[in-house]
Amino acid sequence: MLLCHSSRVPSIDKEHLMLRFIIISFTVLLTTACSNLDFSSNLDKKNFDDYFKPSRVTVYEKPQLQGLDYQFIAAVDGSSCQQEEIDRPADIKEARTNARIKAAEMNANGIVFQNCLIFEQDASCISNIICYARAISVKLSDGE
């Protein structure tokens, strides 16, 4: 009886060793297969700068301009257009943000919105909002 038992133990050990070998081999294979994986991300400098571009432009109300040293740069506009039924409806926040992006591209640090117009459906947009503004360069004090 003892003999049968001792002959059975090595076969269990062999099965156990074989299972370990298969698991380790599979793990090594997976690890090496992923080692040549190219990683691509949208976190490059251009995307990062574009994402924060609107935040470089301060929105001013007309009364806030009194007493400020500023220079008019250009008229800008921003639009939001819903092209398809499945798209989000036109949004005034998106239109204003797009105008701020255009102002930032002109090196403006301020913007004064004149008005935003909501247009009826036409051939290109189901809903459309366009905001008109003035891009300005505000001379900031040294402490700001």
From TrEMBL:
Could you name the domain of life of the organism this protein comes from? Answer: Bacteria
Single GO cellular component term: cell outer membrane
Q: Which UniProt keywords apply?
A: Lipoprotein
Q: Which GO terms describe its biological process?
A: intracellular signal transduction
- In its UniProt entry, what is this protein called? Lipoprotein, putative
